[in-house]
Specification:
This protein is of the alpha+beta class. 29% of the residues lie in helices and 34% in strands. The protein has eight helices and 21 strands. The strands form four sheets. It has an eight-stranded mixed beta sheet with strand order 6-7-5-15-16-17-14-18. The protein has a seven-stranded mixed beta sheet with strand order 9-2-1-13-20-19-21. Strands 3-8-4 form a three-stranded antiparallel beta sheet.
Length: 340
């Protein structure tokens, strides 16, 4: 079976690798090369903890996939430091962990966090940690090998048998197409009759210097009265914080410069007010385009020879999602499947 995968982020590469393992003839196309756009950066949070027991179970399956990838890569791709969840989601996410039979602990001020005042009560996802995003990208790029091509895809076309993928270097004729192009998914999917969300937003995370040397847990903090954040140690002496701002501040219409300014102001203010041992001076910033207000989970849509995937916070699901998408493309599934 000949398959074109449009998008070489972590999801597109994972699906390409799974398709190749299954014997498909694959070409993976991306206009900027592997692990760009939403998959760029050195690290991501891994967590089992979610607001539904179904997603907890899926994340546990993904964790097993990360173990397989780590063995194949010859290096650990997840740093096992745990993930603390504090604030509004704590009780709901704890109930979902319990329902799914996932391991967890309840912690408080003793949590390993760079906080001026630790949470009174928080969920510790003991299986959580930090993904080595660069290591994962290198591993997947090696697996996909010469199937990876740096090409812009500007049009998809259904044909009597299969599909045609149009690029500036000429058309590519295949039996099936997987669209895993992040923010670029919507216009390509729409051109072949598949609806995926089209409202975009800006997102920026920031890295600061920290004097904490020991292993700190990753942290999702949604304490009332402050901006919601996700945080983790990106490397020795480096603490990364992303803020989840109200949509108006990061809306596509606001523009990248204004969204970056608003995000920086909010996150630096959070660091200055609530973190201990973290210098409130930005060392680095990482920008990406996201689909607005999707929340956790992922969605697969199919029509004829075309399959599209979209969602938010997908990096942690990549090993599982790659396998699911490979099966959807080669074996067929329902036209609409939601994992939430």
């Amino acid at each position: 079976m000949r398959v074109a995968v449009v998008g070489a982020g972590v999801v597109g590469l994972a699906a390409s690798a799974a398709l190749l393992d299954g014997g498909a003839e694959v070409v993976c196309l991306d206009r900027t090369g592997p692990m760009a756009e939403r998959s760029t950066g050195s690290s991501r949070i891994f967590r089992l903890a979610h607001g539904s027991a179904a997603l907890v179970a899926l994340a546990r399956d993904a964790r097993a996939g990360w173990a397989r990838w780590s063995e194949a890569a010859g290096r650990p791709l997840i740093r096992d430091v745990g993930c603390v969840v504090s604030g509004a989601p704590t009780l709901e996410w704890t109930a979902c962990m319990r329902k799914a039979g996932a391991p967890y602990e309840m912690v408080g001020a003793d949590a390993r966090l760079p906080a001026r005042r630790g949470p009174d009560v928080a969920l510790l996802d003991t299986t959580g940690g930090v993904i080595d995003a660069e290591g994962a990208g290198a591993h997947l790029t090696r697996r996909v090998g010469p199937a990876l091509r740096t090409r812009l895809v500007y049009l998809l076309e259904e044909r009597a048998a299969g599909a045609r993928v149009h690029t500036p270097d000429g058309p590519v004729d295949v039996d099936a197409v997987l669209i895993a192009a992040g923010a670029g998914t919507s216009p390509l999917a729409a051109s072949v009759g598949l609806y995926t969300p089209s409202v975009l937003a800006h997102h920026v995370r920031f890295t600061f210097a920290t004097r904490h040397a020991g292993p700190l847990s990753s942290w999702i903090d949604e304490t009332p009265g402050r901006i919601a954040t996700y945080q983790h140690m990106a490397g020795p002496g480096r603490w990364t914080v992303g803020g989840l701002l109200d949509h108006a501040g990061i809306a596509w219409e606001a523009g990248r410069a204004e969204a970056t300014r608003a995000s920086r102001e909010a996150v630096v203010g959070y660091v200055r007010a609530h973190l201990d041992g973290v210098e409130p001076t930005v060392l680095d910033e990482l920008y990406c385009t996201t689909m607005a207000e999707l929340g956790d989970g992922f969605h697969i849509r199919r029509r004829g020879p075309f399959t599209a995937v979209y969602g938010d916070n997908l990096f942690k699901f990549a090993p599982l999602l790659g396998d699911l998408l490979a099966r959807a493309v080669t074996e067929g599934t329902e036209d609409r499947v939601d994992y939430v």
